[in-house]
Design brief:
Length: about 100
């Protein structure tokens, strides 16, 4: 099995920083959009089993390296948060618009 270790690392980072990112919507679809966009902006790091993910994660112990991943995550979270495409958010917007009528 081939695994992109960055997916697990970014999922962990999103889980850790989710409350600090001031996200407009935190539904599964928006979270997936943030992860997908972020993964498209970082270099993939592949391993052949889940146990080896820790070796890749250990290479990001350097504060500068980890900070650059957090910055990319925050940038992508802002993009998704500024224009959520999910149905969950759209339903909330529609309901709020109705309350102004």
């Amino acid at each position: 099995m081939i695994i992109n270790a960055m997916e697990k690392i970014m999922l962990d980072l999103l889980d850790e920083y989710k409350d600090k990112l001031q996200l407009t919507c935190t539904c599964n679809e928006c979270m997936d959009d943030i992860i997908a966009l972020t993964l498209n902006n970082v270099q993939p790091r592949y391993v052949t089993n889940k146990e080896k993910i820790m070796y890749i994660k250990a290479s990001y112990v350097d504060k500068q390296e980890m900070t650059s991943l957090v910055v990319k995550l925050a940038e992508c979270a802002k993009i998704v948060s500024d224009r959520p495409l999910c149905k969950t958010y759209q339903k909330r917007v529609d309901a709020n618009e109705m309350s102004y009528l």
